[in-house]
Amino acid sequence: LDTPVKRYSSGMYIRLAFSVAAHLDLDVLMVDEVLAVGDAAFQRKCLGKMSQVAQGGRTVLFVSHNMGAIRRLTSRCLLLDKGALRADAPAAEAVELYMAHAAEGIECGVFVRAEAPPENRPFHVRQVTTRRDPDAEPVNQFDCDQEFVICVDYTATRRVPGLYGYINLLRSDGSVIYEGDSRDPGTNSLDGIEAGPGTLLIKIPPRILGAGSYQIYLSFASPLDPAGPGIDVSGIVGQFVVDDSRTLRGNRRNGYLSTILDWQRTAAWP
Known about the structure:
36% strand; single chain
């Protein structure tokens, strides 16, 4: 409370603005990407407060790329594409249209970035492919028992201190099946990345994902670089299918995991 507002980070500004707006007696609450900042506890508070406001009979206009939150909070969606209205539909239908539109330009395990990188961005993803191993040809169909790799080709125009990558694996309805970033292993291989082209390899171990269709969402950020915190929001950069051909339950298995649990029979407990 004693910190001058001029010293707030951009995330703290948004937290403060949401806190003030959420506690005013408003007829319409307009919230734009508030869930893009803050930790999990803050995001839960935001979702809870917006649900409370909506259930109280007031209107909430929620702008977001978080499909899970949209499905949870909203009953009607307006899908915008370059400022033009693409659909006015129930939430579930709009989410499906959005996910399908986001996957346009992805073919046979290859996504090529069409737009040129902004001049002020020091890091830019050029191409993303999915392969059975780094030297294999791109494909978009894998078996649950196979390890496969997401190959991210990039260009850096200069050294980027503090850079880290963020990944989501999504189902076709927008559900987040996996969330992680390059700092999870404890050492971040992207921190201080040098200028020049390169390739990042993200390995997906076998027997992790359940059978089904998935999309890959990538973004890159740095709290230390002058161009940050958002360095490159690549978005939906790939889609692939996983099949379960070995087990009896196979592709009929419900849920999001294909992990095989070990069942052992022992003598009766005393």
